[in-house]
Amino acid sequence: MAESFLTEVVEPVAPTPPVARDVAPVLAVEGVTKRFPGVVALDDVSVEFYPGEVHAVVGENGAGKSTLMKVLAGAYRPDSGTIRLDGAPVVFNHPSEAQAAGISIIYQEFNLLPERTVMENIFLGREPHRFGVIDYGRLEEDTLAVLKRLEAEALISPTALLGGLSVAQQQVVEIAKALSYDAKVLIMDEPTAALAQQEVAVLTALVRRLQARGIAIIFISHRLVEVFELAQRVTVLKDGQKVATAPTKDVTMSKIVEMMVGRVLSDYFPERARPEDIGAMALRLSGAGNAALRDIDLELRAGEIVGVAGLQGSGRTALAQAIFGVQPFQSGAMEIHGRAELFRTPAQAIRNRFGYVTEDRKYEGLTLKQPINDNIMLTLRSLRAKLSRAFRNGTRADRDLAVELAQRVDVRAPGMDREVQFLSGGNQQKVVLAKWLATDARVLIFDEPTRGIDVEAKASIHERIRELARAGAAVLMISSELPEVIGMSDRIVVMWDGTIVGELPAGAGEADIMHLATGFAESSRNEEKSV
Prior knowledge:
Blueprint: H1 2-9, E1 27-36, E2 39-49, E3 54-58, H2 65-72, E4 80-85, E5 88-90, H3 95-101, E6 103-106, H4 118-122, E7 129-130, E8 133-134, H5 136-149, H6 167-179, E9 185-189, H7 197-212, E10 216-220, H8 224-230, E11 233-238, E12 241-247, H9 253-261, E13 281-289, E14 296-301, E15 305-309, H10 316-324, E16 331-336, E17 339-340, H11 346-351, E18 354-357, H12 361-365, H13 372-383, H14 389-392, H15 396-408, H16 425-437, E19 443-447, H17 455-470, E20 474-478, H18 482-488, E21 491-496, E22 499-505, H19 510-517, H20 520-530
Helix pairs in contact: 5-6, 13-15, 13-16, 15-16
């Protein structure tokens, strides 16, 4: 089902033109202020949202985006100011009131029940009844009617279990749930953060259809490329204040970044390595493979960053996991600093001074309810065979080292005893990085190192990664964002169908990468062989 969903839904959809200004805003925020103890989260913010328009809201973490969205969605009440819906002032005391009025929000973390069916998720708590019991026949009909509005009725079954659907399909269910409330305004919070590139195309097509129905889309994203592709207007927030609202056609990406961070960023990425900076071979794979990979040939040298590009399912994460011993190679050869060795467990990799920053920092990279100090020292402590009670509680030297590493990667928090769950996404990622710095890793694998973090935090992570390479570490960096792969890499390898199908030099173009990543080049080669 997932495969047909990706191929059948994505049809050419013409970009929706900007909304004419003689149309009244469906939702207006007028002078809204929201305070928390010691913080002014929103300071006299005014902005209008029009029907049939995608309006992006951007800013750094802490800029006020989430607070504004929660005010609109009824989770917070503003301390002052007015919210108008269809011209009339409204006051929401609960998200259900906003939803009933036609304002729905889709959070980055889906609010769905995996053990329930699609139709039970869409109409949860609102199921039609007959003689006191749920009328499942009508429930299925109502669900089909909503899916038809998205032109997805043939692709998602109302009776399918939610847990068996792909991430993209689950997002469609979230959108269908919002439409079931007759939404006039749909707020999408980082909707592409967990999607592969081809799934983003699915979302884009759905957004265009919602626009055509006159729904106002409020689009929150750290991916500025998508903002410029989807949105007709963009509002920039900084420190709780509105910096500007402008048509996307009238501003540049560099200008948006400048407004977001309050300073000019002459370049998104640090300077690449020079040829004389590249050192000895740190990792070599020859014909390596397992159930997910085949014939992997790869070289990685000290001092360089090798980017790994490819579509979802191409084998990028499988490659990282195989190298690190999570899902070990079953064939071929691997050399570490010139000696043959295959890691069968992550512990072996760590002992050999390998580090792995996984794509899911919250569930695989961090212990969220533990303080910064403990998270930074977690991996180093696991390396030591026998831990005394005093050591388990943390020695003074360990605490000092954790502070030093946190400062080195610029973790911003009130103190080292702050639980990691309360940090921004960018600071959480810096804690993961500091954790591997504690082990003095010399080969580092980064899988989606900047997913879901703001522009300035991205720049900081990029600089930290480049500093590691300058200090002699060998870095393998996987990213779904082609500008990041191109901007950070000294070489680029491209994966397709479980193997590396090509290598490109620093600065290669997106078209060259996609030519390889879509399998087009491989298909052409196979055709030539058959001839």
